[in-house]
Amino acid sequence: MTSTLLRCTLASLRLQGRAGLRRAAQQWWGGAAARPLSSSRVPGSAAAAAAVEVQQAEASAAATAQQQAQPPAAAPEAPAYRAHIDFKFVRDNVEAVAANCTARLSSADPHLVAQLYEQYVAAQQETDKLRAARNENSSAMKGKLEPEARAALIEKGKAIKEALEGLEARLVALEDELQREGQRLPNMTHPDVPVGGEDVSVQLALVGQRRSFDFPTKDHLQLGEELDLIDFETGGVVSGAKFYYLRNEAALLELALVNYTMQKVVAAGFTPMMTPDLVRESVFEKCGFQPRAQNTQIYSVKDSAMCLTGTAEIPLGGVCMDKILAESQLPMKMAAYGHCFRTEAGAAGSASKGLYRVHQFSKVEMFVVCTPEQSEALHQQLLDLEVQMFTELGLHFQVLDMASHDLGAPAYRKYDIEAWMPGMERYGEISSASNCTDYQSRRLNIRYRPAADEAAAAAAADAGSGGGKGGKKKGGGKAKVPTQFVHTLNATACAVPRMIVAILENNQQADGSVVIPEVLRPFMMGIDVIRPKKKVEA
Questions:
Q1: Coiled coil where (predicted)?
Q2: Residue closest to 192 by CA, chosen among 404, 375, 434, 377
Q3: What is the predicted pLDDT for the residue at 188?
């Protein structure tokens, strides 16, 4: 019996390590704290058995201590937020989701997501069963019981509690892993989107005529220097490569572009806004961007959870975060003028020269929150508004339905507009318009209450305020219509530096001057032509 009790004590104290095991053995055998254990203090064969048991326990404790002394493997970081991903859809359509990931060159693993979801559902069901058993056991203890019966229920409750704690810990771990893997999945893709790289993108329209020059043309860098408009040299000294100063008419041209664009979008029903340049990292992630990813385009603030915005899409997306909107509020259209900051990691080649690719620039961004039924029509409206503005500015451009490889994770479909840029002798992107369906709203937690539910609530309120004793009566008892996730869309109204590139290069004249587009002249303080300020040597 002594040996059995000793084994139980050693097992219960094994987690305390070598010192705890030695103290327990010394208590059993009465040895001094400083004296090693000796088998001669335990009579007969029990002494040898106990000594072996202690040696094994001490060896196990020593091994445990050695493992603990080594740096533990870093536990996966818990997700920063919980996305309301439709995991059931992923499980039920796993092959289609996998094909979508392949088409978009995504490394996400939908089969793993489906497997984790099955495990999570099973663990949730087991947890619910144990919670029900715990409640049933607690209810049983409220009655009058014999001591033996009460003791049995107490032991049962302890066992349930222990099992429940382990299962709940597993449930949390499964949910974390499910979120980590699920958040890597890209949006599904519109069936008309071409599969492949940029070379298979479909040209939807070609607008305007490419200008034919009867004199040698200059790129925007040469024009900017000769007309004293752009100063990359000082920008490099003050801030580093890919930073610049706009001078004289170029500074006015930026303001003119912004004012013209804001006038157009406000007339189209957009609410004008100015947004923060610093946004929480979690909001970036909820919008589908990865601030900490390798080769990220995002500037993160050291020792802070803040990042510099790469587009006003992000702070505009956060406007309705964690809100339930009424369907009558939709569509909600917002347009913001903001500053954009991008690392441009990996950028190289002729397309990265000058103003075409810089670390900081200004942009007017459009953002729409709407019902699922409205989103495709609104996507076309955004594109139509872009086409109208760029046509009024006199640009020659093409409209592309972008291929699957060129879609960011949130986009269901994306239209790009590329203007002809003589300096590069090719088309260059000046805007895009994306339908993100419910990808962002499931992460930002933006829902709306359908109109049917609003009408039912109004009817119930009317019924409660009229007739009956006391002026109140219960409503009709209609079940509430579940809230639904909104769809979000975003589109570039004006990316200022690239618009300046297109205007300077396409509107240059033989004498070195540049003609201001007519629609911008009301915002240019009476300037209609940018003329050389110093004689240009031949």
A1: 157-184
A2: 404
A3: 99
268 near 331, Cβ under 8 Å? no
C-alpha to C-alpha distance for 355 and 497, rounded to whole angstroms:
6
- CA nearest neighbour of 386 among 354, 436, 441, 429: 429
| DSSP E strand boundaries for 46-89 | none
Answer whether 87-182 and 199-208+273-460+478-502 agree in fold: no
State the Rg of the chain over Cα. Answer: 34
Q: For residue 72, is the peptide bond before it cis, meaning its omega torsion is within 30 degrees of 0?
A: no
Tokens of residue 397, six digits = 């451009």
The pLDDT score that the predictor gives to residue 537 is: 56
**Which of 97-111, 349-363, 440-454 has the least mean pLDDT?**
349-363
SS3 content of the chain, % helix, strand, coil (to 5): 50, 15, 35
| Dihedral over Cα of 516, 521, 524, 525: its sign | positive
Structure tokens at 408: 């960011």
Measured distance CA(396)–CA(416) in Å, rounded: 14
The superfamily CATH assigns to domain 199-208+273-460+478-502 is Bira Bifunctional Protein; Domain 2 (3.30.930.10)
Could you tell me the residue ranges of all domains in the chain?
A: 2-66, 87-182, 199-208+273-460+478-502
Residue 340: the pLDDT is: 97
User: Which residue reads 């519109």 in tokens?
Assistant: 190
- Residue linked to tokens 């300096």: 423
Other C-beta atoms lying within 10 Å of the C-beta of residue 316: 25
Residue 110's Cβ-count burial label (10 Å; 0-12, 13-18, 19+) is buried
Chain segment 131-190, per-residue pLDDT in tens: 999 999 888 888 888 888 888 888 998 999 998 999 999 999 999 999 999 999 999 999
Residues in Cβ contact with 115 at an 8 Å cutoff, skipping those fewer than 6 apart: none
